[in-house]
Amino acid sequence: MKNVVFLFLIIAAVGAGIVAEAQQAKKVPRIGFIASGTPSTSAPYRDAFQQGLRGLGYVEGKNIVVEYRFAEGKLDRIPDLTTELVGLKVDAIVVVSSSSARAAKKVTTTVPIVMTSSGNPFGGGLIASLARPGGNVTGLTNLVSDLGTKRLELLKQVFPGLTRVAVLAGPLRPGLERTELKGMQAAAPSIKLQLHIMEIRTADDFEKAFEDAAKTNVGALVVTRDPTALFSAHEKRIVELATKNRLPAMYPRIGYIKAGGLMYYAEDELENYRRAATYVDKILKGAKPADLPVEQPTKFEFIINLRAAKQIDLTFPPNVLALADKVIK
Questions:
Q1: Tell me: the pLDDT tens digits for 44-101?
Q2: What total number of domains does the chain contain?
Q3: What CA dihedral angle connects 79, 235, 273 and 284, to 10 degrees?
Q4: Smallest Cα–Cα separation from 142: which of 305, 255, 301, 277?
Q5: CATH number of the domain that 118 lies in?
Q6: Contact call for residues 118 and 101 (beta carbons, < 8 A)
Q7: 309 and 191 together in one domain
Q8: Domain residues for 309?
Q9: Three-class SS of residue 143?
Q10: Does 155 share its domain with 80?
Q11: How much is the pTM?
Q12: Does 322 lie in the same domain as 220?
């Protein structure tokens, strides 16, 4: 009898251990991460997010699972990717922009959504306020209208004789952010610059846009952030076309610099992705997105790539290099 009881206790203990392990396995949080570009163009941002997670004690595959999805420049894929992640019962979804967040919110109003770089978080009722977002969306914003103007001002500082600038802009469709372009158009006269708008509707428009810009004698190029995610999938192509046409270019995302771009000015974009990990951490610990304030950037950076300058026979004087936070040699 004692042996039977002993055996029963062993079986019970083993069974309890198996159940405990199963329950522990179920508790491993699962996060969705939707990038707007391709796996290669999104690598710097994915790496920064992973770095943020590691800094908070999360190890992928051990105490957290991240499901990566890539829109590859097609904003209309966001709802399907979101639906897929919701089906996996993720605890939160990280997205890039306010446009991506709106697309994701159409699919779910319950799963927390964390933005990494929102240009217009108020559009479409995405959030109620920065301090108390309400709903299921929170994260970081990037003040794009001010940054677009600052890029123009920097170009004028770098090239005082500049009078005409080409602006690469995404499709101006209803419902998408136009704040950056509007801000630049409003500021251009006071900076004594004329803008040549190069509107890109599809990937087939890039070459023609650059050809047309060359005919208007523009002296430089500013690339805007494209809320449709088309540009994100073609950063290298845009850089190559700017180089081919010998246009000094100012870019809005660090990915362009990694693709060989000349100049970059924006909030520390990679820091935003690292900060997004802290939102995920707070949500996993029970915080509600509605109560997590949307952060505005406090750190900005201006980068000059001298390797790219050499390709178009451009020399920066010391006083211009002194303006840069980082110079790539």
A1: 999 999 999 999 999 999 999 999 999 998 888 999 999 999 999 999 999 988 888 9
A2: 2
A3: 20
A4: 301
A5: 3.40.50.2300
A6: yes
A7: yes
A8: 144-268+301-328
A9: coil
A10: no
A11: 0.77
A12: yes
Which of 130, 147, 54 minimizes the C-alpha distance to 294? 130
DSSP state of 326: E
Residue 46 in any domain: the answer is yes
Q: Pick the more confident residue, 229 or 85.
A: 85
Strands 263-267 and 300-305: antiparallel
Residues 274, 255 share a domain: no
What element of type H or E holds 55?
Answer: helix 43-55
Rg of the Cα atoms in the chain: 23
Q: Are 223 and 169 in contact (CB under 8 A)?
A: no
Do residues 109 and 135 make contact, with C-beta atoms less than 8 angstroms apart? yes
Q: Are 147 and 250 a contacting pair, CB within 8 Å?
A: no
Asked whether residue 313 falls in the same domain as residue 173, the answer is yes
Q: Which two tokens stand for residue 180?
A: 């950056």
Neighbour order of strands in the sheet with 164-169: 194-199, 164-169, 220-223, 249-251, 263-267, 300-305, 326-328
Report how far residue 89's alpha carbon sits from residue 83's, in angstroms, rounded to the nearest whole number.
10
CB 309 within 8 A of CB 246: no
The Cα–Cα gap between 165 and 182 comes to: 15
CB 151 within 8 A of CB 181: no
